[in-house]
Write a structure and sequence with these properties.
Layout lengths: L62 H41 L2 H34 L5 H28 L3 H18 L4 H7 L5
Amino acid sequence: MSFGDPNNPYGQPPQQPPAGAPGYGYPQQPPGVPPQANYGYPQQPAYPGYPGGNMMLPQSMPGLLVTARVFLFIISAVQILGALAFLYFAAFASDVSDGADELGFGSVGDGGDAAAGVFAIFALIAAALAALSITLGVKFGRGGQGIRITTVIYGALGAIVGLIGLFVGLDTGMASSVIGPLLWLVFGGIIAAAPVVPSGTAWFARPRY
């Protein structure tokens, strides 16, 4: 009986490889080379950068845009008050026209009707501008390039109107006639400039999810 016969059931069991030895089929590491921890899996490449990747996208609305937004809401309040005032004048002119017709003053009645129509048109224009101001202010949070361009044009037109009013007020020489146009010019200039500066441009160009 030979203990070395592998087919002998009573023979000596085969020797187990020592602990820590690499299993069958694993490549042997050469001396002096540390073992690899990835077991043959390729290392994941790093994510490539992107142009402007070091620039942080704005997470909150820039201060100048917040100011322009507040100005839009203030202007809308003034425009709403103006629309209500024009409606009141239109109603008053209509009442005067009706009273003049009853008294036989036809020319006065015709003039009252014309004045009522003019005041009604001004009321509609003021109401439409108030709606536009509110819409632009509300859309600052989620609006894109369309809101940005519309705001710039709207603010520039307001600044032009304020500048014309300022020249007229200076020509009259009355200090009270200068304050309103000056405020309108400042408000319009800030509203037009806020979306154009780099912080405003980055805000309207930011990705939306």
